[in-house]
Write a structure and sequence with these properties.
Helix content of chain A: 25-40%
Pathway (chains A, B, C, D): Amine and polyamine biosynthesis; ectoine biosynthesis; L-ectoine from L-aspartate 4-semialdehyde: step 1/3
Number of strands of chain A: 18
Radius of gyration of chain A: 21 Å
CATH superfamily of the largest domain in chain A: Type I PLP-dependent aspartate aminotransferase-like (Major domain)
Largest interface: A-B, 133 and 133 residues
Number of domains of chain A: 2
Oligomer: homotetramer
Strand content of chain A: 15-25%
Organism (chains A, B, C, D): Tsukamurella soli
Strand order of the largest sheet of chain A: 5-13-12-11-8-6-7
Cofactor (chains A, B, C, D): pyridoxal 5'-phosphate
Keywords (chains A, B, C, D): Aminotransferase, Pyridoxal phosphate, Transferase
Number of helices of chain A: 14
Distance between the termini of chain A: 55 Å
CATH topology of the largest domain in chain A: Aspartate Aminotransferase, domain 2
Shape of chain A: globular
Family (chains A, B, C, D): Belongs to the class-III pyridoxal-phosphate-dependent aminotransferase family.
Chain lengths: ~425, ~425, ~425, ~425
């Protein structure tokens, strides 16, 4: 039996869905199928996807290896929904995560399934950091993005999103992210000073939460030495270090964890987006064993046991993380984009700048309106890419890691043409 | 190709998974397959499931109608992950939800996809209520459960879960749920009085959030007249009424929305758990149209576009909500359980009490330890049922709505035997 | 040398003083001299004062015994301002307070000088209660008044005053004061129930703060048995009991401490207003010795060492509290007022009610506008009395304890005439 | 009649007064009389007072001009305590303040009497700033000191004092005070950047609160150009500027208001300490007229009408602020101290530094323990001076403005000798 499709009026999204929707405004069509780096709308128009589910589709849309395992699982009568009960699928994921990811990197994290979204993972991390330390305050960074539930929102920078809370967001103090002053101020000058100074008025923090590359914040890349200095500062001060690897983990920057480039070991790590592999909801909070002071059920949630995502997560780890080929390919592809971007920026040094790491690459426009127009033109020419940054001034590329070189080139051709037209106007 | 299974040591859950896990302690086995009302562990032991994913599996495990649609969707190259882009699967779900659920009930809600878990839906509801009213304070009820992220946790009653926050939970004031004083105090005596009294010290609330039946709180059933009086009080005071129907919606109490029994129309409704139909993560926040003041992207989340769940949600609505047969069956099955429970309780009037609505039924033990022991015995005899209530004193039954009468009887036989043994001890 | 007086324009208060002023609107004249129960304005109009500095002038205006000691101190070169240094005047006050007040009552409080106003004393009490218990939440009561600084305001009920904070006031949960439901609900039904119930959502409180008679709240009198039950409840739950005796202490209700009538011993007591005796700023926070865990300087303030007030405070204790004659006289005078009030209320049972203890007596009007009009008429006829209560519906009498019987009768004549005119209208 | 003195045991302070006392530990004697720059203990030992009530005694102890007016007022039957009623004494103070202070400086503030202590004035300022702007957040500065009640404490830097709150202090974000980085970072680099950046995570502030010279914070002197830049930044960003002149106002730095040196006009100014003139409790909050949106009684307090302090305040203004002689003398005396300090510091450049403005002068020790020892030695040699700064590393001099040059020299001799002994050790 095939499910009967339902006809719906074109106006259904406008009339029935909340005004909160956003991507559907930038890309005003109705998508239907997807494969690899491509999405097709119901009129048959194809779009090259340099957005990849905001980083949730590192292995591409409907990756066939993962799909086969998923369909096999579903059609074999295996359990789908299991809360935090032990299941075979969860056991296999834990074992695979241990063997493929943790052990080769010398890591010994405990794995918490905090609910299937990034913000669940961040909320769990913040709660645990506060419980362990007995302190309330968290240090976040300028232009951080950690999620939309109240705890995560309080450590997020975007003022429009913060205003949505409807209550004053407290218990978080922002510090300057790497290079916030264009290199003119010493790293951690302010942060160290207020920690040193018992009269500074800073509440002693439970934890620091940081992204190694701020995606939503505008592709701001923390240097390895900055991350090392931050980790060192946290250790000296007995402040927990949380790396939010929801968007930058799972190979986005090259290595599995984005912090590997700095050689640091965070106390707590959050993973989501591409950890499920196939775009299915899943999130993990990784804890140093000595921090695992949770009581049973002290944090819970209905969809912690999303077994289809356990299955695709496990297969993705097996398939892509048994050796370093994906990491090397990601770095090479990233450099391919970066090279083109640098050339382009060199032509318009007043108007463009470029930054990125691995397969998160940003083209920053001096005139933020141009960035939006470039993305609009790209969409009309068959390329999906979004802006980020506090003023939406950065075109951010997050293609699938599995993208081909020719697809990269095609996308960059579209983007480059749109950019030239716009900045030369 | 079949995915190679991975061998994992029995100790993997103990050594790798966080101490926060909970159900895996009550039911210490490794589950593997599931169908309808049954789960089977990897040793082949079968368990009758009166828990049903804490209400996420109203249509049973791996419901074949939904699975067929799901597998068909997955194998047809249809898009899986789409954030808040418009997709055919989303359009079909919106149209079906409109035609099957909203229109027949004379409701005109806007639909927000707030992220795929109940707590996302609650956080969105609270944020919007605060934004609309410009007030911060929320009224919740004793023994409420609304979720584990910071906003939802602040309106949740359980003290152990609240302590997990690590910060003082503020902006919420609890009021007595229906029958909190065993009928001796007039309804809303306290709530109305503090609202009337400009010197009461109550911050004027933005909204009231309520469950019509408190599942986690111990199967506390609000009478229709209490709900009507609450809705009336909210309307007179210009306080928004949020019904959290995450666990009690989707037919759990009989009608699709649990508040239908009272004939009220809440301002905001949250749905999750069984709305996806197949146990896949999905949540909706329903808003009266005039409350839809969200700015684009003011609330967001990576897994808002979980298309597989859109598909199973739509098919579930088509299959189960085209007429009132499911509602009538649920009420009949509920009465079947309630009748047995009442008889049992009549035998032990000092030790047992019973309450419920539709297919959420509770057996309350005077001695809370007995409730846990009964669930333990039931597990050993092949029945999964959990306790709830502030002291875990209530055995709570949440079987699939699709359960058969003979399965109900079998489960009740196991439970009744375990109860008799325990209370007669 | 006599200080040259300055001529000032009649408009100076309107044009130079902030709009926040309030009594000067109800009593729009310019006062100049005062003695005992009388104030005289600069035009020579005399007013009988049934307001007494809102309870700060229990011994009347410019009490000659206290004035002589004060002037003697000032003219003897004795130190005026001393922060928290030890001074002879402070030593004498501590000794006198010990011998006249604490020892005869079997009390062993440590004395903190928290700054010279009631709200300083309350803030110190709340801070210490939180420090001692490690909890943040405070239980206050409907219609409580504890002060205008942020900590005190958060436990104050009046919604207009709370709105002045400009931030959400948190960490306090109001409970019903005695007789809040007119006797129909059992005492502490709600409070005990939410404390008992681990799922109630009430944050476990550090302390309860209570006035034995709520002056600003409308002359609400807690019965002794209610106070005893509250003290008992606090002791059983290990919640600290703070009695705010700023307005009702120093003999206002008869005995020195207002809680003596109930035979309870609070953990912390705040005193201010009449403790200085002469209307000079002074406040004390009394602590059970085992609660005195303050670090040196952990709470401070510039005017903790207001030696002129130490002197008048000491002399007032010597002069008025060496025996029980003041207490007996206060009770007798209070009964004199209460008797007249009861007669009056009996004439207009639909419109008037009466309540009070000692020399705080209230006449409650069903129609709150009448209360304000009565006070306006009284002012024009030479009597100062203010309204209180959430709707300003209660005429509150706080005459000096040293008032004569004929002065009482005169004031009551004026008030009674004004009331008759108003309620019979 | 002379009031009988009471004998008290030497132990009364230890056994009866709270452990919170602090100055009495540094200066363990019992003071009794005072005059001008001198205090005498009950054993007849005289101490030269370079502390002056922490800045509350700018005109010296028991200033005879003020005392005469005060005693005259008290013995003339004039009203003592009047809440916020209009009185002759208040009218005269308002007129004198207008004519002597405001008009000559071209200022047009409304005057609020917020209660008689500095922290009352600060709380009123913060409340009003939040009410006017509708925002909650306040910017304070590192090492700020604004008071001990909850609102003031939240903008105070000292970690020990903050911990006394017992709740997380929120709604305030510290920014670096002038010269916080020893001149290596541009002024307001961080503050301007986070205001500019809509993604910085800084809640938009209602107000900035600043001391022009941080007394408790360690005699940190803001340069006029820094203050001007701050005022300019606030104006451009529509953030209110509050200058807390509780300690530095009333001529301490030379001019009446400490901000005059920068030529700025704050939106709100707090005054206390020496505004009463004689050490009697008094505080003012000055508001630009358009900010005076208080409702009547929205902020109140029992001791707002401390008429004896109105009298001494008025006479002090008449006597000391009719011309610029006090200002010039203060600057000269300050320079006298600064010159000696600079010479001393030049001898020990590794161990000493000096800073100050007018008659607040600090001697900063590299080794903070030396500062405490120097003050201890000074006390034993008859000089009262206290330490300040986050590590108590600064000997802070706040002598009466009325001190003589020979008294200055005597005090400096004592201090210099103690310092030499200590640093040369």
């Amino acid at each position: 039996m095939t499910t009967a499709t339902t006809t719906f009026p074109d106006t259904i999204f406008d009339t029935r869905e909340s005004q909160v929707r956003s991507y559907s405004r930038a890309w005003p069509t109705v998508f239907d199928t997807a494969e690899g780096s491509w999405i097709t709308d119901r009129d048959g128009n194809r779009y090259l996807d340099f957005f990849a589910g905001a980083g949730a589709l590192n292995y591409g849309h409907n990756n066939p290896v993962l799909r086969e395992a998923l369909v096999d699982y579903l059609t074999s009568g295996r359990i789908t929904h299991s809360l935090d009960m032990s299941t075979v699928a969860k056991g296999e994921l834990l074992e695979t995560f241990t063997e493929r990811i943790l052990r080769p990197r010398g890591l010994d994290y405990r794995v918490q399934f905090p609910g299937p979204t990034g913000t669940n993972a961040v909320e769990a991390a913040l709660k645990l950091a506060r419980k362990v330390t007995g302190r309330e305050s968290i240090i976040n960074f300028t232009n951080a993005f950690h999620g939309m539930t109240l705890g995560s929102l309080s450590v997020t920078g975007n003022s429009m999103k913060r205003a949505g809370a409807g209550i004053p967001l407290v218990h978080a103090t922002p510090m300057p992210f790497d290079n916030y002053f264009g290199g003119v101020a010493p790293d951690f000058q302010w942060f160290e000073r207020v920690l040193d100074d018992s009269g500074s008025g800073l509440n002693r923090p439970a934890a620091v939460i940081v992204e190694t590359v701020q995606g939503e914040g505008g592709v701001n890349v923390a240097r390895p030495e900055w991350l090392r200095a931050l980790a060192d500062l946290c250790r000296r001060r007995e402040i927990l270090l949380i790396v939010d690897d929801v968007q930058m983990g799972c190979g986005r920057t090259g290595p599995f964890f984005s912090f590997e480039v700095a050689g640091i070991v965070p106390d707590i790590v959050t993973l989501s987006k591409s950890i499920g592999g196939y775009g299915l909801p899943l999130a993990l909070t990784l804890l140093r064993p000595e921090l695992d002071v949770w009581g049973p059920g002290e944090h819970n949630g209905t969809f912690r046991g999303n077994n289809p995502a356990f299955v695709t997560a496990k297969v993705a780890l097996d398939h892509y993380w048994s050796d370093d080929s994906l990491e090397r390919a990601t770095l090479a592809k990233g450099e391919r984009i970066a090279t083109r971007f640098r050339s382009l920026a060199a032509e318009f040094p007043e108007q463009l700048a470029t930054r990125g790491r691995g397969l998160v690459q940003g083209l920053a426009f001096t005139d933020s309106e141009q960035a939006s127009k470039v993305c609009g033109t790209a969409y009309r020419n068959g390329l999906l890419a979004e802006t980020s940054g506090p003023d939406d001034e950065v075109v951010k590329l997050l293609p699938p890691l599995t993208i081909s070189e020719s697809e990269i080139d095609l996308g960059l051709d579209i983007l480059e043409a749109a950019t030239r037209t716009e900045v030369a106007r």
